[in-house]
Write a structure and sequence with these properties.
This protein is of the alpha/beta class. The chain contains 12 helices and 14 strands. It starts with 5 loop residues before the first strand and ends with a strand.
């Protein structure tokens, strides 16, 4: 049996209602040199039968069956079984558009310095009832280059996991998904970036990212907001130790209760807060746990402070970036957004 160029790994658990659509989208790919490694994670519905039917019809579809262990165990089992030089991720409730595998593999072929490539994605949910998720998808579609991905890594996960393709040597060098009380895909992304893996995106929509109510990112505590902030703070603290010339002192943009709760996680890593900065006159002048709340217009001169933008309300990140850049601050050198 010849070794395929690409292995698409697909964890499957009780996905009988959606997995046919996902597999059909792969069988419609313009590139044909691939295999699909489906991992049946102990499903109790019709999933096993559907996978078996597709495997009989097309030898490129392989089935790995494991006792139910959760998405991390299934994802890692798929990676271990993958034979291609490039490994792509696909969820059993999403759809790859016809040129996805061809476009992403061409990108990796043409850019040997890039270890992981994503793409722009279509939001497959309801934009009215799932406006927050849709807004997140829209944001990810603006973060395309390695530099943009790198500097925005602590805002959110800028390269959605179902859209990625990477070189198999990244696994050998930097490891697979890890178990823990954190989103395993975001942790892998942060770990690989920290290790120096370059990442970028094909500037084309190549995946439909559906948003069913049963999606794990909506239902499992490993993916809640607090879990994201715990893991991002661990990596942020290490990033600051390497990149903040004034380490361990930082200046916090925002002073609200939620901002302080999230920023305070840095204190456990030895960070020191010089001040909070706000635009709300009701907050300015207060002192919170020994840290003053100062008018934003009194932020120090560029080059004399490192700022973290912690305000997550819609439009605030862009407003703060415009303000700081208007004061001569350089993104990545003098400040980064973390919400």
């Amino acid at each position: 049996m010849s070794i395929p160029a690409i292995s698409v790994t697909m964890p499957c658990y009780n996905c009988g209602e959606t997995v046919s659509t996902a597999l059909e989208s792969l069988l419609r790919q313009t590139m044909t040199d691939f295999e699909v490694v489906t991992v049946d994670d102990g499903s109790t519905d019709s999933t096993a039968g559907i996978l078996a039917d597709y495997a009989r019809r097309d030898s490129r579809i392989r089935i790995v069956t494991i006792p139910h262990g959760g998405v991390i165990a299934a994802a890692n089992a798929g990676i271990e079984a993958a034979r291609g030089r490039y490994i792509a991720r696909m969820d059993a409730d999403d759809e790859s558009l016809p040129d996805r595998l061809a476009a992403q593999s061409r990108f990796l072929d043409a850019n040997p310095d890039v270890g992981l490539v994503g793409c722009r994605i279509q939001f497959g949910g309801c934009r009215e009832t799932c406006a927050g998720y849709a807004h997140y998808v829209d944001w990810t579609n603006t973060v395309l280059s390695h530099d943009a991905i790198s500097v925005h890594r602590f805002v959110e996960f800028p390269v959605p996991n179902p859209s990625i393709m990477y070189r198999r040597e990244c696994i050998a060098r930097h490891g697979m998904y890890r178990e823990g009380d954190f989103p395993e895909d975001y942790e892998l992304f942060l770990r690989w970036l920290e290790a120096g893996v370059r990442m970028a995106k094909v500037d084309a929509e190549l995946l439909v990212w559906n948003d069913p109510p049963t999606r794990l990112s909506r239902t499992h505590p490993r993916y809640d907001v607090d879990a994201f902030y715990r893991i991002k703070t661990t990596y942020l603290a290490r990033w600051l130790a390497r990149n903040n010339p004034l380490h361990p002192v930082v200046h916090i943009l925002g002073s609200g209760r939620v901002t302080r709760k999230r920023a305070d996680l840095l204190l456990n890593h030895g960070m020191e807060f010089a001040a909070y900065y706000d635009i709300d006159p009701r907050k300015i002048g207060h002192v919170v746990n020994g840290v003053p709340v100062i008018d934003r217009h009194d932020v120090p001169e560029a080059g004399t402070a490192f700022c973290l933008s912690y305000v997550g309300s819609r439009g605030a990140r862009e407003d703060i970036a415009d303000f700081l850049q208007g004061r001569g601050y350089v993104l990545g050198r003098d400040f980064i957004p973390v919400a």
